[in-house]
Amino acid sequence: MKDRTGIVDGDLLQIASDIDCADSARIGCLPERRIARLNLRIGPGAVVRSGSVIYAGSQIGARLNVGHNAIIREENAIGDDFSLWSNSAVDYGCTIGHRVKIHHNVYVAQFTILEDDVFLAPGVMIANDLHPGCAHSRECMKGPTIKKGAQIGVNATILPLVTIGAGALVGAGSVVTRDVPPGAVVVGNPARVSGHVSELECVREPRLTDRPYS
Fold it and tell me: Which of 38, 104, 121, 140 is a Cys-bridge partner for 154, taking CB atoms 3.0 to 4.6 Å apart?
């Protein structure tokens, strides 16, 4: 089943022949936890840079793009055109849609859902444990659901079980403790609605556009 380096047997790897994988990256690393299926599938056009690790047991679509020293754990279902930049980690059991972009130094906790076109800026932290240390925390553990097209700003923290609505914008440094309506702008700790993305104006001079989210 595994060789001395802990890589799953080639029969369990369904990886497109055109993958661009650095010599120091590891593809098909065995998880310590027991899982039902160790099969790893990675679609065509993947790039995996040095130091990164992709565990066995995930299903990943076409054109995966992984930076340096990034980790994708087991039992994840990931769509096409997924970008995961350097020093970021996707823990196990997540569902990620198409065209999702995760920037540097981001942690995505187990059992998180990221729908299509979600963007996580550098330093975003996602939690999944309501009561750390509780004897039952493992049974109720669940990350947030971030709906289609939502944008999460630099160093934001998203707490367990919340739903961030489609097209919402979470401001830099915010701590999201409750559900965010679709299209809302939220800021602060705890994050509160400050407006709607359609109301935001460009602050550059000269302006490149009047309404960035029109």
Answer: 121
Does residue 6 register a pLDDT over 80?
no
DSSP the chain: -B-TT-BBPGGGEEE-TT-EE-TT-EEEEPPSS--S---EEE-TT-EE-TT-EEETT-EE-SS-EE-TT-EE-SS-EE-SS-EE-TT-EE-TT-EE-TT-EE-TT-EE-TT-EE-TT-EE-TT-EE---SSTT-TTHHHH----EE-TT-EE-TT-EE-TT-EEPTT-EEPTT-EE-S-B-TTEEEETTTTEEEEEGGG-----SS-S-S-TT-
Establish if 214 belongs to a structural domain: no
Catalytic residue from among 104, 131, 136, 196: 131
Q: For residue 139, what pLDDT band results from cuts at 50, 70 and 90?
A: confident
* Position 162 in a domain: yes
Query: How many domains are there within the chain?
Result: 1
Q: Give per-residue pLDDT as tens, 47-105.
A: 999 999 999 999 999 999 999 999 999 999 999 999 999 999 999 999 999 999 999 99
CATH classification at residue 28: 2.160.10.10
pTM of the model: 0.93
Residue 131 known to be catalytic: yes
Can you give the residue range of the structural domain that contains 35?
10-199
pLDDT at 208 (0 to 100): 85
